[in-house]
What does this fold into?
Amino acid sequence: MLGTGLTFPPNLGAVVRRTVANGELPALVVIHDPDGDWLVGDGINDPNIPDACGIYCLAHVAEMDPAITETAGLRSGFAAYRDDAGQPWKVEPFAFEDE
It folds into this structure.
């Protein structure tokens, strides 16, 4: 599911925590939810507070943090987690808590 050589489509949008999008914090969570949507978080701050996230081009976010590209092959319904920017991704099945 993870690997090198894959890339995100150039126009693929994702819900991204602004702290990741502006380079303040590294991405520690990448989710490809069961509906096919992509979400990227910093693993620290609550993404549900107002204005915490925005829609960004995932390929551009991955340019700032090339390790995000390692998750491009993540299947729908899975999430990749890492403890910090230098660590490898761990993949687990994903479902929203209310499902």
